[in-house]
């Protein structure tokens, strides 16, 4: 990396931190901190959900599969899009209509306090360890690109690069601070900025890597046999169908995604948010997996897990490598901030508030920010400790990941079925956990011969089968269904009472997006002075970004003035 690359990366880090701190003014209570006051634009919620699915593994794991096996990596990621569209049609609106503030509140009302604690602590352990591993993996990936001069206090003497510990502290610390101060508003808007940076870096890289591969026709001709087959090896059509089902449960019921459906004003907005998420995942995987696909014909002998980074180094001009590193950071930062915010919200609203019901909003706001900080500190400590875990994190993630499908399936089932009770939670978790343990630890060699089939059976088929049996054996209406239905009715009455109150259009999200695009455009214009190649491509991208920035800013300003004029006109 050059000095210009470091300056680009520093500009990005300072930018997202400034946005997070700036949005703290919108946080007046825990509703603002954990659900954006229910006033998030649907497009911001959808983009945030899209980014929450990303992590450093997107580049390492899926980039490696794309390099080794080809287009099947794109097919696997398209499954996320199919799942999100199905969630938009069947599930997203239901979360809005039941009148709850957090997904944990639904679990408590629908199934009781026992399942609430079971869900909270099991999902938190799984997610915290998983996110810590992702943060560590990101740091390992990025420090390899960041050499430092001898004598620099952040330098690792063994490698000559940025120390992994310092990378975790810096990258993790920035995410924790803006999440703690700005709450869900900061998470949503920094996710939008990260979406811009990610796609800018990828779209800029595509024409360069394709041209270096000799063009599309050359890429197709020189690719290995079967490189463009939609399925390959263990990744069969059965696996893809199961992958859609697993992620239908995940997007429809995992708390970070449910939070995106609850933070928008209406059920219609929740559905639009999920549709945007799904459509983006139906069109974008081919774009951001094209670099490792093309790099396979440029360098057939590369390490698959390094293919994405190597392709970036191969074609990106001065300054743009820093932007790509920012994009890789964005992928993990979004996942980290989302999980911190949602679990801090659960601990504050559904655990602490139960112990201290007399607490006022100012006190709960301080507690919520404190929870974000504590969880962030634990996360950073876990990430630093990953090398010392000796593989323990793999065991924890494996054990708990066996329970993700069994945990999430009863949540979605409980949205629609009035008959099942907490018995469904315990039966599904118990049966599927035992089956998963048998697959992963009891007879792993036996089940390994069947490829991905046992995972799909344990993660999808078995939970649905158990829930079907419980549904058939259950009689009458569950008390939990009645509690949720009562909450939904009360919320509907409150909404009807407030439906005549005029609301103003908040231009802040549009102005943040416009400003980010303008900064990126001006920064790319500046790169013209430090590069000697690809000047036309840089200039075109810079011009397009500035024009887009001006258009979004003008549209936001005009809509804001129109709304104010309408509100000031006597009826």
UniProtKB/TrEMBL annotation:
- According to the record, the signal peptide region is none
In its UniProt record, a GO molecular function of this protein is: symporter activity
Q: Which GO terms describe its cellular component?
A: plasma membrane
Q: Name one GO biological process term.
A: sodium ion transport
Q: Which family does it belong to?
A: Belongs to the sodium:solute symporter (SSF) (TC 2.A.21) family.
Protein name, please? Sodium/glucose cotransporter
The scientific name of the source species is: Crateriforma conspicua
This protein's UniProt keywords = Cell membrane, Ion transport, Membrane, Sodium, Sodium transport, Transmembrane, Transmembrane helix, Transport
Task: Identify the domain of life.
Answer: Bacteria
Cellular location(s): Cell membrane
Gene for this protein?
sglT_1
